[in-house]
Amino acid sequence: MAVLLITAVLLVSHLLMGMFIPAAGFEEDDLRTPRIEVVERQGEPPGPLGLLLFPADLRSGVRYVPTVYADYGGIVELLVENKGHNDLYVPQYSVGWEGSSVTYTLNCSRTVASGEAQELGVLHFPGPGGPGPATLRVTMGLWSSSANGENWWDRGELLVTSIDFDVVQEDALREWEVQTNPLNYYNKVNRLVDFEVVQGMAQQVRQEAPGNYSLLQVIKAYELVLSEIEYLTDEDNRWQSPAETLELGTGDCEDHSLLLASLITALGGSARVNVIPGHAFATVYLGNASTADLAVEAIQAYYGNAVPVHWTADGSGHWLVIDTNGVPYVGGYPASASPAGGVGGVNWHFEDGDWIRTMDVTGETEFSLFF
């Protein structure tokens, strides 16, 4: 009986050690900063404007993050389906609060071919400044083409829809309890990540964004995982390896995070898998505060508007949020979280609890009897 009691005490002690004794993780020389260059959206009008009115048969709608905050605002994306026989061109779309003359515009410059449907890019809009009911108007510019596509008619600015929101006030920013590389989570993550199985995806990313490891490659990797892997919860909350996730084409937040962190590492970057109450997401190392500022400029140029860019920060530097299940762009705040205390940066916190476990993706594990 005494032997069983001692064994139980040792087991519980070891389990607790796995929660609170950290693994070594990255050393300073291991951290790799992405090359950052500003890649602006570019779009040219598809052809000359004419004097004839050409038809337009389209279906339009919007996708948006349902909670809008008084200061931070929210995110919207315009969707267009061309149901006609001629091409359409959307130079821009805009949003604005009803009763205000201020608008926020995304210059998307997209041609939508006959029979095609397109997502025209995410647009951030600041809040109305206070909580309560508010209505957001969404408009779009639209050109329609002649049958041969050689001439175009500018149809002007059209109302897409009006969206009613019950705007909420952000909370004050709270302190986080940070656990870096707790041994049990660190070993679990690094047993599952796989840098070889994602080499094909890495090659796809490099074809779209050639050259050495860069922030643009991070964005393309995010978009690839977002488009290829459907989000699907599992009842037993089992963490899949990247190989399983690729084979199934589905996965939950942990599975997305492990796959994306593996892909970033295969591209030459430094990544982490983070766990907060009810959610997991990946982050990628940016470097110091100056590099983070450059990254914000590049990300906003890529998306064509001033999207807020979020990260975590510690003694090692700034880690960019790349959550394929969160606000849908690189730098959007994670799912199961909300903006707080300001816009962007570390101004976000968790909807339940105030702790985060952050695990360096090294592909190596440390000795443990049980983990």
Structure explained in plain terms:
It is globular and about 75 Å long. The longest helix is centred in the first third of the chain and has 19 residues, at 2-20. A hairpin with a 6-residue loop joins β8 and β9 (152-167). 24% of the residues lie in helices and 31% in strands. The strands form five sheets. Strands 3, 4, 5, 6, 8 and 9 form a six-stranded antiparallel beta sheet that branches. Strands 10-19-13-14-16-15 form a six-stranded mixed beta sheet. It has 371 residues and is of the alpha+beta class. The protein has seven helices and 19 strands.
- Rg, please? 23 Å
What is the CATH level 1 assignment of the largest domain?
Alpha Beta
Could you say which overall geometry the principal axes of the C-alpha atoms support?
globular
Largest sheet: 6 strands, antiparallel
Tally of alpha and pi helices: 7
Give the low-pLDDT segments. Answer: 1-18
Total number of strands: 19
Which percent range describes the beta-strand content?
25-35%
Cα distance spanning the termini: 26 Å
